[in-house]
Amino acid sequence: MDERSVDVSVGDGLTLPLAPERLEEAVRFVLRSEAVPAAELSLALMGDEEIAAMNAEYLSHEGPTDVISFEMQHPGGIPIGDIYIGALQAERQAAEHGVSFEEELLRLAMHGTLHVLGYDHPEGEDRADSEMYRRQEALLASFLAGGEPISR
Questions:
Q1: What is the spatial distance between Cα 53 and Cα 20, in angstroms, rounded to a whole number?
Q2: How does DSSP assign the chain, residue by residue?
Q3: Model confidence, pTM
Q4: For the segment 46-103, what is each residue's pLDDT rounded down to a tens digit?
Q5: Phi, psi (rounded to 5 degrees) for 8
Q6: Structural domains present in the chain
Q7: Which of 23, 75, 112, 149 can pair with 69 through a Cys bridge, CB separation 3.0 to 4.6 Å?
Q8: pLDDT of residue 147
């Protein structure tokens, strides 16, 4: 039995290019790659209004964002966290970066999972050179290619 609990929910009125189970698979892929034997994670896809409200309340930023994650485990305990993805923002970013909407959703699910696991990155231009970003992109490439989880 897999002790990696992942619950995915999709907000009312959102249309996604992939089944929610695919996002669950991506989160589990990260957990296996990071050698996390047990975890409790939730992933919620939201519209612009909902994610903008969370962004304002919890991060004091204005407008919709792509991903917000909350790490809630106690030291020494299993990873517990909530990941919120702004689906419409993800769709816009996909178009801006020339990638598919599906790929961007998977990237953000993995990004949020890495945050819950304790990874962080700088803001701004240095972000793409960070360990977290490189790890995220390596995991995404392996997952999209149908590869096995990749250890650090």
A1: 23
A2: --EEEEEEEE-TT---SS-HHHHHHHHHHHHHHTT--EEEEEEEEE-HHHHHHHHHHHH---S--SEEEEE-PPTTS--EEEEEEEHHHHHHHHHHHT--HHHHHHHHHHHHHHHHTT----SGGGGGGSHHHHHHHHHHHHHHTT------
A3: 0.93
A4: 999 999 999 999 999 999 999 999 998 777 789 999 999 999 999 999 999 999 999 9
A5: -110, 130
A6: 3-144 (3.40.390.30)
A7: 112
A8: 86
